[in-house]
Amino acid sequence: MFGIGFSELILIFIVALLVLGPKRLPEVAKTLGRFYREIKSTVDEVKEVIVEEPKTQHYTPPIEEKLSQVDELEEELDKEIKKEKKKEEKTEEPKREKISFKKKQGESIDESGT
């Protein structure tokens, strides 16, 4: 740990005990422990980002991105065209009534045309 031996660590502890006193020493030790954990976790996160991120990211040149987008749009367009064709096939022609101008038996045409 930072190149400090056991005897130096005991010397630092004795000096801290004399300077801070027995009442404040536990509080300072807890605070230093939290600070050390935060620094260590931050350093670990930075290492992970620096080491792992380049492995996961793949650079795609802009022309290849554009071509892949064009391919996707082409596929979507083909799907839409097929849907429209199916809709046209499913729609039935409207049924038409047969209109006849022949007189049915017993009916007469008025002069007014009705």
Describe this structure in words.
The longest helix is centred in the middle third of the chain and has 32 residues, at 25-56. This protein has one domain. It has helices spanning 6-20, 25-56, 62-90. It contains 3 helices and no strands. It is mainly α and 114 residues long. It starts with 5 loop residues before the first helix and ends in a 24-residue tail after the last helix.
TL;DR?
The chain has helices spanning 6-20, 25-56, 62-90.
List the helices and strands and how they pair.
Elements: H1 6-20, H2 25-56, H3 62-90
Overall strand count: 0
Give the overall shape, derived from the CA principal axes: rod-shaped
Number of self-contained structural domains: 1
- Major beta sheet summary: none
- Which H/E pattern describes the elements? HHH
